[in-house]
Specification:
Blueprint (H helix, E strand, L loop, with lengths): L8 H7 L3 H13 L4 E2 L2 H10 L6 E2 L13 H24 L26
Parallel strand pairs: 1-2
Amino acid sequence: YKDLASVIPDKAASDMGIWHRHRIEALSARRATVFTTVSEVTAMETEHLLGRRADRVLPNGLVVDRTVTMLHEFQVKHATYKEKIQEFVEGHFYGPSQSSIDYDKTLYFFTAGRYEYHNK
């Protein structure tokens, strides 16, 4: 990031063959009513590369409540949210009367991101 100031955004995008995508993203960032990003680092990047500093930084990923100091409290929260996930899976995929899922042997995987199928 020490070299970020030396990057000329339009030229760099053109050199990488993504000038049109860069221009759309820069224009979208500049015209957005509210512009957010996921970290201070990306806020710095967007200011230089897209021409607008983020209005707010919204941390990416799961935020664990750091005020939970006792393991027991964490275990209670874990059990509560696990049950909610199980209820969703059961209702969405099977219906409550047809469930034969062994939840002790079930692994859940979550992913999130923008709709950019070409880079997933």
